[in-house]
């Protein structure tokens, strides 16, 4: 079955609900059982059915079924946010005295969790360069229990050699987790490349409408029970309304991602010719240093990329950003709206130095007409230049 067909049909069963196309939203805490035997049977297997609202409802299970099937996972676990999916995974595998290998380009709140709560628990983290492959072996310790990847990396979009990392890790009995939010299950088939746990901030492209917080942990058979037990122990549960919004978003994921990618490439071709732009980072762009790995491993791209601007005064940057009318200034991404955000990778990298002469901007290409977005950016560059523009680096 092609992905577009799977997106349309997985996670729904109209015959079960009088022909209704979408599964209903189950708002539930208490679940009643017809007799003591049924209650006791359910309590012996609380992770496999409707037992208590916090463990999941039929709405939750429909989304989990669809997400797991799309990526080729054994099962999925839905939680309240992408960060909840990340922290649940880390806590499921790590305990005091353990060692974690974490990619240096990882999402900022993941690093904050590793350097904060995990460190206080006696779990050590080593950050490794995103271009590490087989040479990662030198960082593995006897107590290393997990290798965490994110490809492309947050803010700077380096592509990792995930198959090489998985081969190295599995030869030593170490599982590999991946934050796969940028590509979604549609454009990077994590389990085909050896990943054990694939994490999604479904808040982004899965929901797709900037109106719900949601996280999904897709996991293979070997580790599903470990992940589910950790989520339950930590009190995590995705709301039924949010799961319904995730299911709604899945139905149009393929057409939205195609538009996001096409618009991103259109903007990048235009931006790369501007004198105010020094560098573009987007793996699907042929000039990107990670393009070869992207071509080898990915089925497509999304709408998120970054640009390095020419050195400028703070006033020029503010003039450029503050006057934009179609690019919102805000966090998150993956919705229908275009966004632009100044970011500072140099503040977090530890395994490798990150330096840029000018501001680094993260851009999300939304679903607006590309020509209108270009006009908005062009007006921003006019303001930039009037405010002093490029200065010597």
Text of the CATH class of the largest domain: Alpha Beta
Query: Beta-strand level of the residues, as a percent range?
Result: 5-15%
Strands ordered across the widest β-sheet: 1-7-6-5-4-2-3
Q: How much helix is in the residues? A: 25-40%
Content-based structural category: alpha/beta
Number of domains: 2
Order of helices and strands: HHHEHEHEEHEHEEHHHEHEHEEH
- Counted by DSSP, the helix tally is 13
Rg on CA atoms, Å: 22 Å
Span between termini: 53 Å
Morphology call: globular
- CATH topology of the largest domain, anyone? Aspartate Aminotransferase, domain 2
Mean pLDDT: 95
CATH homologous group name of the largest domain: Type I PLP-dependent aspartate aminotransferase-like (Major domain)
What kind of oligomer do you see?
Answer: single chain
CATH architecture of the largest domain: 3-Layer(aba) Sandwich
Which residues form runs of ≥5 with pLDDT under 50? none
Count every beta strand, where a strand is a DSSP E run of 2 or more residues: 11
What about the largest sheet?
A: 7 strands, mixed
Please tag this protein with its features.
single chain; Aspartate Aminotransferase, domain 2; 4-stranded antiparallel sheet; 14% strand; globular; Cystathionine beta-lyase; Cys_b_lyase_bac
Could you characterize what this model shows?
Its cofactor is pyridoxal 5'-phosphate. With 393 residues, the protein is of the alpha/beta class. 36% of the residues lie in helices and 14% in strands. It is built from 13 helices and 11 strands. The strands form 2 sheets. It has a 7-stranded mixed sheet with strand order 1-7-6-5-4-2-3, sandwiched between helices. It has a 4-stranded antiparallel sheet with strand order 8-9-11-10, covered by helices on one side. Helix 3 (58-71) packs parallel to helix 9 and helix 12 runs antiparallel to helix 13. It is globular. The model has no long low-confidence stretch (mean pLDDT 95).
